[in-house]
């Protein structure tokens, strides 16, 4: 993934990474669903009477059936210093699509999707993906701001303090979530917070249900979007005075989004007419017409019946007829089986993910069952997907909100209205901890490399996991990671800048040693600057040779937020110094 230098990033953030100089009572909440294939914006004015979450529906370049749509295509085109975006991009232009996926290139693609080269895709970009994403976010945000401003008097809008919230896939690494956050800040959205996409969908869907919820009800939220499919399960903790939900089991996810259908459609066309012909017609309107037909007409209309028939047109493509495969006069007659074959592996993957999530909930709540499964997101609106889930889960009600496509962006805005609904706790999907020199244990640490500390004690490197997979984590709770550092008596001032590495692991059992772990990786490096603290808080000691040194005790404090952790440091229970977290790709 392309990287920004620290100087370049600092310049990009200049003026955008500082909080507002005032704290206005009037607010406007602006939520962005930055999607792989489509993006949208929702907003609300929480101080206005009977304020409701609304979406921006009028976008530049949109016309016909797409007019008054809550989403705009996530697509950009650069021509020198000029950038066009969304529906305004010329369909024959060499455009950038799927930039969101390049913010987290570490995600494994399933075998049923055509292989691609991430490095090649990155080289094609005119700038690092975080800056390309920032350009798109800035364009959609600035345009939406004008649309929102038209809904209220100009004087009122000037009074409002803006609060931004950005949805991100739950499947993403913390590094990718942080990169997305930086892109939003570069684009001018500040202050901005993150929310997991399925959590946002749950906030909207369960809050707006048109039938009664009961305490103890459990729901699986399946957010099937363009790039990813995220699943999280919730239990209703309270109904009044506001809806309270808690996560039940670790969320699961996969790269089975609807963009995969488009890629498999392209592969099907290659099998029909050959790769060279596809390369040729991609330079003409023929490919745009055919791909648009599949994406906007066939995908949403398909019901899974072999008797269904669809006609895909390649106007003026001059393709050779192949009647035995349904290709005549630049028109491909697709049968229901043709379309079903395109859908098949993605449907199978989604059904597997749903089945795994349901089984985990049943284990967590023996005898209580699952009340319902919600299908949200663009792919979640597919009637064929719903019918497949109904067959696979006949004992559970499958619900498909009419506004499934905009559920995420609406829920993201709703999350900033704590008087209506809230998530009380989440479930850890990874182990999080630190590695340090611990007192050697003959039984637990046998065979590990050892060192001797200043007190003459034998130590070896072990992991301490403060968060483990499956832990119930209270929202906005704080977890303290205690550290001790040894400093010479004549230490230099800059030696009080301590860098600690926060590790993560997906191993079933949290490993004690690096040699025993299969999936241990760096989550982030946290730099704590304690140069300004009172030196009297240090504890002077002497080593085995009588040489004095200092023990410096401090806590790294991790605050658990919706999608990304935040950090601070405490000495003797008081917040001191500054903390900077650096994520690595």
Automatic annotation (TrEMBL):
Domain of life: Eukaryota
A GO term for molecular function: ATP binding
One Pfam family per UniProt: HSP70
SUPFAM superfamilies xref list: Actin-like ATPase domain
Keywords for this protein: ATP-binding, Nucleotide-binding
Protein name as annotated: Actin-like ATPase domain-containing protein
Naturally occurring in which organism (per UniProt): Clohesyomyces aquaticus
